[in-house]
Amino acid sequence: MEPKLPLLPLMPMEELEGRITNGELAQAGQFPYQVGLSLDFGNQGFWCGGTLISDRWILTAAHCTDGADGITVYLGAIDVRNANEKGQQRIYSSKKYIIVHEQWDNETMANDISLVKLPVPIEFNDRIQPAVLPKMNGQYSSYEGDMVWASGWGRDSDAATSISQFLRYIEVPVMKQSTCKTYYLGSVTDEMICISTKGKKSTCNGDSGGPLVYKQNGENVVIGATSFGIRLGCEKGWPGVFTRVTSYLDWIEEKSGVVNK
Prior knowledge:
The protein is mostly beta strands. Helix content is about 5%, strand content about 30%. The chain contains 3 helices and 15 strands. The chain has helices spanning about 60-65, 175-185, 250-255, and strands at about 5, 25, 35-40, 45-50, 55-60, 70-75, 90-95, 100, 115, 145-150, 170-175, 190-195, 210-215, 220-230, 240-245. Strands 1, 2, 10, 11, 12, 13, 14 and 15 form an 8-stranded antiparallel β-sheet that branches. The chain has a 7-stranded antiparallel β-sheet with strand order 7-6-3-4-5-9-8. Strand 13 (about 210-215) and strand 14 (about 220-230) form a beta hairpin. It is globular.
């Protein structure tokens, strides 16, 4: 079995460069649900992504937030180096606002999901808007073959040493689950969803926790949170693996009250 690596070590903020591998530069307001998370781990700061799902709640990965002392949330941002960027807001959430899934397992990457509560409600505008959760109806698409969007400030190549200054994105198809399982023998469960990374388009270090979105009837439906890839590198053609949001709708509602019925 090939060694896998959650998109860790989380990327430091210094010397910003790189991006989602072989992605496109995002425009202001194109991904209004995308948030950046600057995580405080004592003497170290690390970077992840997340998805705004209401005026108080952010969906991200457990491997990002587990053990963090606090988080600075970047909202409405394209350029994370520019604190004066038009529409960008930064809000600090303390440790008490972080909810990590109780069955999160950093060995198997099972239940790699967490929630971050904002200390105050935020006002939506053209650059800050929530994604919607899949409708809770008990009948959920596998999304296999559907084109989906992943975005973030992660590395642009396996040679890059730090995250991107600017938000990037890729549009890629969801991989058939049985095919994905052949890559990560025993590691991919039904609570995960995979993307094809042909053409070296992939999520990479620094994208962890960020959104996988399916556009449906004009809505941005968040169906995944970036979880892990292969230790060999982000440009090797191995599937990118996400936590499957439809598997956790009950948990999200229980913890946050956010639900789409």
